[in-house]
Amino acid sequence: MDAVLQRDQQHRSKPRNENLIRAKKMKTLYLMMLVPMLLLFLFHYVPLYGILVAFKKFSPGLGIWKSEWNHFEHFKSLFHDFLFIRALKNTLVISVLKLIVAFPAPIVLAVLLNEVRHVMFKKVTQSISYLPHFMSWVILASMVGEVLSPQRGIINFVIHSLGGTPINFLADKNFFIPALIVTDIWKEIGWGAIIYLAAISSINPDLYEAADVDGAGRFKKMIHITVPSLVPMIVILFILSLGNILNAGFDQILNLYNPMVYDVADIIDTYVYRKGLEQFQLDYATAVGLFKNVVGVVLIVGANAIIRRRSEHGIW
């Protein structure tokens, strides 16, 4: 009996000993993790203390703790504020359009690049396509403004040459959102394609060889092997995109929009920017931002739960 107990004890302590040995071997990696974990804590968790401002009648002189509680007054007034309703509607419209039009664009580019056999052409195309990702919207907005300029822009030059009337794309409500979608695709399509190209590179080559034996052409291999193999990655990125559906692109819109297109271009983030930094209503702006983030979390959890029920894919 004692021998059996001793054997069981050794059996239980073995995994613990193995974990300790493994931890000692990787102590350098754990030490390297300390800096990013500390930065994550300082810049992402410590500032959460500021959420209290949304529930206060905040006065900078009194500070957060000494300011009066507002009994959810800001959250009650959100949906009675015409400007907030307009910003919420615009955010949803722009985000949904980006999800429908811009989300598939990197997938298409990655699949097409995978079919290119000329290595140099493939590398040059990929490099050119993801270059805009590394440029800020401050720079890109200036470039877009010049290209779409009614006086100097190349697009309006072509329109005028064909006998048409020049269009001020960035000051016209009918053209501003399409300009947003196109420029967003231009900036992010190459960078997004990298993820899908990495997923394509992990596909088992035996599948393509088997398809060759069965006489499948390149198009059929793309449709029946490449695209289905990308489904898990597409699902994960789609769920994350749903969580960001109330982030319609603050940097892009702030640098491109103007008062003439506020009716269609003013989103939650630009509304918070004006309320918080221009009008100094910090408590109300915090309440709006908190509302947006809570909705984002709910969408991620809900979308993941629905997809997990219908398939084996998901974030967790």
From TrEMBL:
It is a multi-pass membrane protein. It is found in: Cell membrane. The keyword Isomerase does not apply. Its main location: membrane. Residues 88-303 form the ABC transmembrane type-1 domain. The keyword Protein biosynthesis does not apply. InterPro entries: MetI-like, MetI-like_sf, UgpAE/MalFG_permease. The chain crosses the membrane at residues 29-55, 92-113, 230-250, 284-307. It comes from the Bacteria. Keywords: Cell membrane, Membrane, Transmembrane, Transmembrane helix, Transport. CDD domains: TM_PBP2. Belongs to the binding-protein-dependent transport system permease family. This is Protein lplB.
